[in-house]
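Help wanted!
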Amino acid sequence: MPIQRFYPHIPQRYRLEGTKCKKCGKVHFPPRQVCNSCGSKELEPYRLAEEGEIITYTVVYTPPDDFKTKKPYVVAIAKMDDGAKLTAQVTDCTPDEVEIGKRVRVVFRKINAEGKSGIIEYGYKFVLI
Amino acid sequence: MRDVAVIGVGWPKWGELWKKDIRNIFVEAALMAIEDAGVDHIDSMYVASMSPGLWSKQEHIGALMADYLGQTPIPAVRVESACASGGMAVRLGFIEVASGMSDIVLVGGVEKMWTGEDFTAVLATAADQEYEAFHGLTFPALYALMARRHMHEFGTKREQLAMVSVKNHANGARNPRAQYQREITVEAVLNSPPVADPLNLLDCSPVTDGAAAIILAPVDLARKIAKDRPIVQIIGSGAATDSIALADRESYVELPAVKKAAEIAYKMAGVGPEDIDLAEVHDCFTIAEIIVTEDLGFFEKGKGGEAVEQGLTKIGGKIPVNTSGGLKSKGHPVGATGVAQIVEITEQLWGVSGERQVEGAKIGLAQNMGGSGASSTVHILKRID
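Answered by r_m:
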């Protein structure tokens, strides 16, 4: 991935930076300029909760070429304790340990690397608590 | 608004077309539609295609296709809404004819997917690149997330997912244009390689090269040039959008864009789900057909799996779904899919579908969607006498 495509997302990927609506309190991740709940444009920066619960998950056996060496891997959507929903891989466990309803914590990990000279893409993954 | 009819269709055989490039594939379908309609010119055209730029390194295909179809200088533009590109193009063509801006409009869709590109990665560009694909999510994986939730909330069985595929292959085996014209079994689906658990290879629509085209015209004009077949009118057209990322939805067992597009189309057509004689729906994955048939109002939420098991969606059932073979069996050349759905419904209403004919079909519905349901269209067609 060209560095310019990665750069604008660093606050989200490194610090879980989202937004919170000053009017209705909805938490957005990634950040938005317009609240997708009430339409307000008065949003403030907000750091996402680090823990949540798995709502659904899948085990990917046929990945894109970029993820070939990592298969199979688990990707889940978790509802964080502040209501935001986050999509990420579940790591440090085997696929059969993952279940709907299990608690997860967000950790900072390497997501991918672009060959020998490309950038290393860091971001967040889930671990089971 | 003027009443709009489908006056001609073109749908050549789909598959892995290694000897043809994107322009050959499109022009063949477009010429078939023009000849079928019996018109000597077209006023305007729309070319639906998701990603010619990534697959064929070719953008600007509106002009390219007008050129190779021998139709310059008519206006021509490409329409993109991922897998709903075809349905969106049909809607734009419909609006152009209904508005009176043009009389005869060609709407074609094309995708050339077998080019050696990493098609899993190209298709994933229809998802949120930075917050879904970045984490290794693929399209089968997105629908697997919905499938797991549907199974969790409603007790939908793994076998019921497989039955969607079995039913669609049984229909596709009778469609000479389908990519895979053979029947399969539930066991074959369950034993096929896992792609994104709980979905296996035979739960997934294939990678396909192909095109389809239709010609739209005002009903008044259609009556004048009609061949020896009934007039098929588009009586409802709806489109809607939703969050690009699946995670942002309130629920993962329904598709609000599908519901909204259906609501708009039903209202415009003045009909309800109980009036529909057959439907072509976007079964990119088996779970998609189950969720969509619920969201279109054919079945109660959560009962889509049971409906398939009871045979309600077979030809001869309560509401035949995907008589063409669906995306699963006939193939899914992304941009062409939504247009081919209209071809299938039109032919069914003309009464020329041979072994797949739904007897007495008068009103048909076509539902097309993009991504994990971030865009959807619904069209309702009626045979008018």
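OP: Thanks! One thing I noticed: The interface with chain A takes residues 118, 120-121, 124, 130-138, 140-141, 144-146, 148-149, 152, 193-199, 243, 245-248, 252 of chain B (CB under 8 Å).
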